[in-house]
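ok trying again, last paste got cut off:
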Amino acid sequence: MGASLQTNILIVGGGLVGGTLACALADGGLTSIVIDRLSSRHQNTQSFDGRATAVAQSAKRMLTVIGIWSNLKGKVSPIYDIRVTDGNSRHYLHFDHSKMTEDALGYMIENHFLRRAILQATLKREEIKYLAPVELTNVVRNTEGICALLADGREIHAALIVGADGRGSHVRQHAGIPVTKWSYQQAGIVCTVAHNKPHNNVAHEHFFPAGPFAILPLVGDRSSIVWTENMDDARMLIELPAHEFLFELSQRFGDFLGPLEVVGPRSSYPLHLQFAKSCTAPRLALVGDAIHGMHPVAGQGFNMGLRDVAALTEVLVDAYRLGLDIGTSNSLRQFERWRRFDNTLMLAATDGLNRLFSNDFLPFQLVRDLGLTVVNASSTLKNVFMRQAMGLTGNLPRLMRGEDL
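nice, full thing came through this time. structure:
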């Protein structure tokens, strides 16, 4: 029999969302144990993988309040403008940050920098115990709390277990929470390119019949590419020799930033939508991709995960300060109600956008071009869309408003 550990909350998954949750809870005085299958050393030194994350204004506010944003100095590229075009159509939509009071529409951060910044903040907090690499083998949940058994024999006792362990969540599966899922029959190709001319912090989204092609500004004269193709074409493209891959990429990218060079690896992953029937069960909550997996068309996956984190943190900290049991159904029901509508709305929006734009059906093309023209001509509509993209709409938790707990 191994040692027995006690904490307020057990977080399964020490990645971007799980680590952020631990830091947010610590700010509210709650202790947590974070467990992960990867060692902290591996997470901290994980090499450049070509992926980057879009961070909305509301998410930046939260990361600032809980002490993570300061670890990202020099690693963040603001997005000042977003330009959306429909294939080779002359119709476009232009979002300009100067029309807003905020300093940028959003920010791009390479995943390895973001992962390291979150891990550094996690390891600094005395309220957080980070155990890795470890495997979770069993969880018992009852009216008294939860008891989790690790593969090394140790037991963890807590009031609540949180699954922050991704789309294939072991915590969700163990709780028997069903998932609705379907494939887009598309794959996302991700890589980073260097170019001769500055991007001027402008993000571009081109919609082609096979799917969206996004050019997202990184620090320096580099951009992150998120390129959607049907499964067969993506498989063929990812296997091309380097010079042929660059040629195909350049055909879609254009020459407005000069000659391109692919820096680092290229990767591909299948795209599908999934959502859990519930994000809670007795003494259990899910956050991030464990609840929802969406199309990357709007770059909102990480931001929706942080909205889950902010809402869960708020209901748990409020209950804790009132001297209540944080794992009881009242807090969890509040969290479920708060996140259900917002997550469903974003899943529907990203699904609808991809279906509307990823085709060359003439009636849809006419609707798209009309929509782009109408929105681009209306400052009011553009303002609505910009605020939505910046994560500034809806019933925001305190952390997302930039307020302390």
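cool. The chain has eleven helices and 21 strands. Residues 72 and 117 are 6 Å apart (CA to CA).
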